[in-house]
Amino acid sequence: MTIRDILESMEYGPAPESGAEVQSWLDGRARAFGHFIAGTFTAPGEGFESRNPANGALLARVSQASQADIDAAVAAARAAQPGWAALGGHRRARVLYALARLLQKHSRLFAVLETLDNGKPIRESRDIDIPLAARHFYYHAGMAQLMEEELPDRAPLGVCGQIIPWNFPLLMLAWKIAPAIAMGNSVVLKPAEYTPLTALLFGQICQEAGVPAGVVNIVTGDGAAGERLVAAPVDKIAFTGSTAVGRAIRKATAGSGKALTLELGGKSPYIVFEDADLDSAVEGLVDAIWFNQGQVCCAGSRLLVQEGIADRFHDKLRARMDALRLGDPLDKCIDVGALVDPVQLATVKRFVDEGAGAGEIYQPDVALPEGCFYPPTLITGLAPADRLMQEEIFGPVLVSTTFRTPAEAVQIANDTRYGLAATLWSENINLALDVAPKLAAGVVWVNATNLFDAAAGFGGVRESGFGREGGWEGLLAYTRSAEAPARARPLAPFAAPEAPAPDDPLDRTAKMYVGGKQARPDSGYSRAVWSPAGVLLGHVGSGNRKDIRNAVEAAHKAAGWSRTTGHLRAQILFYIAENLSARAAEFAARIDAMTGGSGGAGEVEAAIDLLFTHAAWADKHDGAVKPVPLRGLAVAVNEPVGIIGAICPPDRPLLGLVAAMAPAVAMGNRVVLVPSEAFPLAATDFYQVLETSDVPAGVVNIVTGAQDALAADLATHLNVDAVWNLSTGDLDATIERAAAGNLKRTWCTGIGDTPASREALAAATEVKTIWVPYGV
After folding, report:
1. Residues 216 and 293 in one domain
2. Same structural domain for residues 453 and 572?
3. Quick check: 485 and 753 in contact, CB under 8 A?
């Protein structure tokens, strides 16, 4: 072919990247790897092969972590962690800086090794993964330097177990290790079975950077090794992977006290409005779906196109697909590389063969190379409820449907159990910023896609997991309060229900508070509440599962509360405090009568103060504009979690109730409160204050009864978005295990002497990062 021919056809010639340096490194290790434990590599043991998915060539043999290997790694991390934390932020910052510099120094070695091990095009590894990995260590070097000044009330968790997937092997490693060690933790990381090699190379640069032995440990293996790490005596598990495995980890860690961050699957919507720059939107899809073989959990694999432009947009998309180049991922001219493993290739084929249904499949006429290659695929004409529109495929397959109005686009976009990310394209910034907050997603990209940075929090909602990685939000996930609040002590168990006594003048008719009004318990039963002196004080309802259902339905109908302004919520909280103050003597006497003590007046005053505190925070707990290296904005927006079920402390009947209610309501959530079993009358009196304080119906609901049973009912309810246990620790396991059903957030803690902590505000908010590039 002549130069003239090339200029006329604009065809690319081959531009292969040499793999010689990687092959030499692998040969230097005899193509056999043990684990990286306590600063050294162990002798290779029995394990499995790591192969190049593009051609099946053997890269190395990697060891399968046994229980003894996991125990040794955790012991090394435990021994190293106190000394690492004691070094101080500056010394840790210097080590993280050294790691960043070494990643840059060896960037070509890492990029080629990543492509050989994973199958993604070298352009993706070279231009995105490795620079972002280095960025994480640079950014968190700064965070380590600032920790003592900016986070003086936070302390490291201890030893963190980390499990990462195969789609971004090195980037996910950096994503997890950098913030953990910056905050003074030590780590045991298990890379994916398919892609362990860049993690092992990272172990080598830990030696070069002077990371103290045991601070970073890397163990390789399959899912069984991951299960052993989850069960090990670590203080936190950070997992990125499938929703099914995340649910199993939630159950396995229930009641253990281990902190947990889950970044799970997604079926992210990619919304194209009729006024969008269609060519740019097409290129965004190419980047999101096909440049990385669709092996990105946040990829916009669910295309929603406004009806009036759907045909034109699909035509442009098919034409662009025809120009994509498949082949050797080491070729710098290749767009689409190989899937990670034959197992994943078979999974993608099965999804398309079984799930396309009435949809129209389009694949470019391209010869597939030998290896784990699958052609770029577009399936149009699907309904929102079709299987491929709902289930994660994790391959280069794009499914599409249409919408007519922005409201319908939001409805279809949110019609999924996932909530990881979303992309929208529109030249109307007002439309874009109207739609973005309405999308159920942890990250929203406007006129862009797949933007990531260490400064911007990333994570999902719903069954895409909980917790954030990156930015200040990610740091909080690797720290704890320096003075953890004490958990409440169990009091007398809940007595068996008694028949109500309607003729008793002290009978409070055993009513609860649901949907802004008093409601009788579904069971028809109540129990008597006696003072320590044996005086009958009243009756409270024995709530059951149906009462929880009714309360959640009432809270669901009050969704408008989440859209109110912080200023309005502040006024109502101030008003509640005012009305409580007017009845302070009455509430104090009630508390003293129930408890037999004399601290009622102090507790009432503390509750009023707490209401004022959260009224103040209602319009001041703001987000931030993140300093990302982009001509644009990455805005972290605090949003309400939704419906929060809270189990209140047993020993402070009024203050505990307010400590659960105030931060949640201040941030725009609706609550279902289960008050103290032993001293419930403060709660049934408190709803009279709510009724006179302009609290909208359904925002606050109070269900009295047995805390253990009602906690389980809240945790299993699929329309409850989070459960807080401010009661005794023996309920933690029940709540956390049951919460795995829809992977709702849990916050199991005590309120201590400072129930107005920032931690409560963080538990009451969900951070959404909205990326808005600007310019022409």
Report:
1. no
2. no
3. yes
Instruction: Point out the residues that are catalytic.
Output: 263, 297
Domain around 307: 269-459
Secondary structure of residue 447 in the 3-state scheme: coil
Is the distance from CB of 373 to CB of 326 less than 8 angstroms?
yes
State how many domains the chain has. 3
Whether the Cβ atoms of residue 415 and residue 440 lie closer than 8 Å to each other? no
636: part of which helix (H) or strand (E)? strand 632-640
In this structure, the answer to whether residues 372 and 284 fall within a common structural domain is yes
Rg of the Cα trace of the chain?
28
- Are residues 275 and 251 part of one domain? no
Task: Say which residue, 420 or 299, is predicted with more confidence.
Answer: 420
Tokens read off for 117: 């091990």
What is the structure's pLDDT at 502? 44
Q: Contact 298/465 with Cβ under 8 angstroms? A: no
* 38 and 88 both lie in a single domain: yes
Which sign does the torsion angle of CA 728, 731, 735, 737 carry? positive
Classify the C-alpha dihedral 624-628-631-634 as positive or negative: negative
Distances (CA, A) of 471 to 152, 225, 615, 633: 17, 30, 27, 14
Same domain, residue pair 307 and 355 = yes
Chain centre distance of CA 41: 33
Residue 502 lies in a domain: no
pTM: 0.91
Is residue 8 a part of any domain in this protein?
no
Q: What totals of helices (H) and strands (E) does the chain contain, helices first?
A: 27, 32
Q: Are residues 289 and 231 in the same domain?
A: no
Encode 607-616: b = buried (16+ Cβ within 10 Å), e = exposed: bbebbbbbbe
- 3-state SS of 250-292 is HHHHCCCCCEEEEECCCCCEEEECCCCCHHHHHHHHHHHHHCC
DSSP per position, 163-181? E--SSSHHHHHHHHHHHHH
Question: pLDDT tens, 285-321?
Answer: 988 887 766 666 667 689 999 999 999 999 999 999 9
Contacts of 624 (CB under 8 A, 6+ apart): 472, 635, 636
Instruction: Find the range with the poorest average confidence among 234-238, 244-248, 291-295, 738-742.
Output: 291-295
pLDDT of residue 112: 97
The whole-number average pLDDT for the span 384-403 is 89
- Residue 12 burial (CB count, 10 A): 13
Question: Residue 672's domain is classified under what CATH number?
Answer: 3.40.605.10
CB 579 within 8 A of CB 686: no
Residue 359, classed as helix, strand or coil, is coil
For residues 442-452, one letter each, b for 16 or more C-beta atoms within 10 angstroms of the residue's C-beta and e for the rest, the string is: bbbbbbbbbbb
On whether both 397 and 376 belong to a single domain, the answer is: yes
Contact 513, 701 (CB under 8 A): yes
**How many other C-beta atoms lie within 10 A of the C-beta of residue 366?**
16
